Amino acid sequence: MLGIEHFGLFLAATLALNLTPGPDMLYIASRASAQGAPAGLVSSLGIGVGCLVHALAAAFGLSALLMMSALAFTLVKWAGVLYLVWLGVQLIRAGWREAKSQALVPARLPQVLWQGVLVNVFNPKVALFFLAFLPQFASPESPSFVWQMLLLGVIFSLSGTLVNAAVAALCGHFGSRLGDRPAWRRWQQSAAGVLIMAMGIGLALTERR
């Protein structure tokens, strides 16, 4: 397929990696449990789009800049940190406002989509992962190298989106069953916000290797 090497191994590795819980899956689970399955599903799509952005960057060599430049890595990392902390604070504030009004405010799905995209794009570790993982199954000397990288990125993104969508549906189901209780909803959203903020702190502690 376009000269892709060890395609079967790539599919197996992709499925195993996407089934392994990580920051993206935790983020989607927290959004779905706090704001319902639709928000989780849209977040899954946003994360998938972010993966496609990283695949494009890896295909055209932009991810190599993050590997070579400490400044670029640091700028992207701290943008991600600040964005995750801001998202967590907003989720906590929204939970307490909704608890006071006794009415659940539906998540604005276009906004949730872009938040998912940015959460993924602003994680430089994801960029470095794509730069390290995808070329193992492509042929750098092939004229179709860029297309190979893009195809591999699309497949990886689709696989991850399907897995994350299943997680979102499951977490959204259980979250909605408990979310009718105002007190539970308040603490549910607070816990989700704290988890997202913790992801930001974890990103702040990562180092370029």
From TrEMBL:
Main subcellular location: membrane
Transmembrane segment boundaries: 44-68, 75-92, 112-134, 146-175, 187-206
InterPro entries xrefs: LeuE-type
Cellular localisation: Cell membrane
Entry membrane topology: Multi-pass membrane protein
Keywords of the record: Cell membrane, Membrane, Transmembrane, Transmembrane helix
Superkingdom, taxonomy of origin: Bacteria
PANTHER family, per database record: ARGININE EXPORTER PROTEIN ARGO, ARGININE EXPORTER PROTEIN ARGO-RELATED
Official protein name in the record: LysE family translocator
